Amino acid sequence: SGPLTVGEFAKLLRKEASEVIRKLISLGIMATINQEIDVDTMSVIAEEFGVTVEYKEEVDESNFEEQEENDDPEALVERPPVVTIMGHVDHGKTTLLDKIRHTNVTAGEAGGITQHIGAYQVEINNKKITFLDTPGHAAFTTMRARGAKVTDITILVVAADDGVKPQTVEAINHAKAADVPIIVAVNKMDKPEANPDRVKQQLTEHGLVPEEWGGETIFVPVSAITGAGIDELLEMVLLVAEVQELKANPDKRARGVVIEAELDKGRGAVATVLVQNGTLKVGDGVVAGNYFGKIRAMVNDRGRRVKVAPPSTPVEILGLSDVPGAGDPFMVFEDEKKGRAIAERRMAKQKEEERGGNKRVTLDDLFKQI
Ligand code: GDP
Ligand code: MG
Questions:
Q1: 20 to 30 A Cα–Cα from 221, which one of 6, 80, 198, 331?
Q2: pTM for this prediction
Q3: 255: Cβ below 6 Å to ligand 1?
């Protein structure tokens, strides 16, 4: 793929190389028969000969699917649900996330709680739940735009003293579009002016009908400040997850998505990733977005070093060559060379796109078009 030599190009045009060279010279380009010319130049020359060249977007060879191992149904095991919290600003998303995190850690682990990696896991009734704390839902929407499904369940937070607001509706639309079940947390129930019935009424108008009104949506009254109702909320999450039968294969190479990433002065590129399938291990060669790296270390949501990260686990990884974007997919490559090559190809492609258009053509493409 990419540029052609003058000789190859002349052949495609069914012209003598000397004619092409003459045209090039008339355009001020001194070229020999074995010299490569770029696509823009080719298009100008083709036009001179009365031929229009159309460009086809090159097939992305770096597709991860090609090296995805199939799941043996026998190898599939239950995995924790991945939950995002959405809702209108100031309705209590952050407070709720914090409260859940702090009340559902086992004693002795609370020390590492200051660690913030953009996602965390809690345990209730011996089952784990993964929460994504995606600022502004940026990662959520990017990932969805790419067709990657990351969230299994959305908790929609609606303040009982404020009711449904524009971002509440926006959140409902996101979740519906992504086909993600919604559990409504009617928050700020500790406030005297809380009016949960009004919230139910308003949400019914948006298609979220409470179970007690004959609908299918679970509503849980909570207070993110006092913690009231939070255990019940988490139990409902597990209930919905059970119905979904979420499974993964922990015995294969990991793949997943970048939740957030940054350049750390001391540690280099640091990315929080969510393992969606397989198990990620220290020492694995991984492509994340356009970058390759060997995992040097992994840190969990409690700030502890870990050696392995099974499905649905959020973990911070060190060792990437540069900072990938939030929402970028990642995948482990057994063949390091292949991993590096794919990362390089992706980078080249992105640069090409930034320069304007997907002007990469293959010989085959040209043959088809001329
Ligand atoms: P976010 O914008 O959705 O993340 O909302 P925050 O979590 O930042 O909460 C906005 C404000 O509401 C803060 O002042 C919180 O202390 C307050 N708040 C959140 N949840 C509750 C609650 O359950 N009860 C009361 N009384 N206040 C709450
Ligand atoms: Mg917030």
A1: 80
A2: 0.78
A3: no
pLDDT at 349: 81
CA–CA gap between residue 301 and residue 208 (Å, rounded): 33
Do residues 8 and 39 make contact, with C-beta atoms less than 8 angstroms apart?
no
CA of 166 to the centre of ligand 2 (A): 16
Residue 187 sits at φ, ψ, to 5 deg, of -95, 170
Is position 179 annotated in a ligand binding site? Answer: no
Cα separation, 209 vs 219, in Å, equals 9
CA-88 nearest atom, ligand 1 = 3
**From the CB of 95, is ligand 1 less than 6 Å away?**
yes
Helix (H, G, I), strand (E, B) or coil at 208: coil
Q: Tally helices (H) and strands (E) across the chain.
A: 10, 19
Report the distance separating Cα 226 and Cα 99, nearest Å.
Answer: 9
- Known binder of ligand: residue 339? no
Residues with CB under 5 A from ligand 2 (ion): 93-94
Question: Averaged in consecutive runs of 10 residues, what is the pLDDT profile of the chain (370 residues)?
Answer: 78 88 84 82 81 54 58 89 93 93 63 66 94 65 64 95 94 86 97 98 97 96 97 97 95 92 93 95 94 95 94 96 90 87 84 64 43
Looking at this protein, which amino acid is placed at residue 258?
V
Residue 325 is classified by DSSP as: P
Task: Using the atom order of ligand 1, give the atom closest to the CA of residue 91.
Answer: 3
Asked whether residue 23 is marked as a ligand-binding residue, the answer is no
pLDDT at residue 54 in the model: 59
Residue nearest atom 19 in ligand 1 by C-alpha distance = 92
